[in-house]
Design brief:
The structure is a single chain. By secondary structure, this protein is α+β, with helices and mostly antiparallel strands. The chain is built from four helices and nine strands. Strand 7 and strand 8 form a beta hairpin. The model has no long low-confidence stretch (mean pLDDT 95).
Length: 139
């Protein structure tokens, strides 16, 4: 038996103003918190098997960088894009984010073969959710 192929992971590290509010926000979107890698300064938000958002208090985040922490409500420091399995799932996730306190970011993009919407989380980080028709990218 061969060992499973290595799957590279993505760990997003994001500063947040209120860790408890961020944990509540992301669990309301349907994501889970990995308590093994969480404490009173950090929450490990499991987006998928290969994507984890590490949300940190500003004090904790500052331990990883010498740069000033951006205020994402006033300046854009990152655009996070997540793929979705369908147009309906795009709407479902963005609608959950809005109901949990997020805000609309930009206009809905509908190009027929590609559909996307975006939201800003509680700290202003922009999350784009996009569906693309698989037949549009097949050879």
């Amino acid at each position: 038996m061969t060992a499973p192929a290595y799957q590279q992971m993505i760990f997003l590290n994001l500063p947040v103003s209120d860790l408890d509010a961020s944990k509540k926000f992301f669990t309301e979107l349907g994501y889970s918190i990995n308590e093994q890698f969480s404490d009173d300064t950090t929450a490990s938000v499991v987006i998928s098997e290969t994507i984890v958002a590490m949300v940190h208090t500003h004090e904790k985040y500052a331990q990883f960088t010498k740069k000033p922490i951006a205020d994402a409500t006033k300046t854009s420091e990152v655009l996070i894009a997540l793929s979705s399995e369908s147009r309906e799932k795009v709407d479902e996730l963005v609608d959950k984010a809005l109901a949990a306190g997020g805000s609309v970011s930009g206009e809905t993009q509908d190009h027929g073969f590609m559909y996307g919407r975006a939201f800003d989380d509680l700290d202003g980080h922009t999350w784009e959710v996009v569906w693309m028709d698989p037949s549009a990218i097949e050879g």
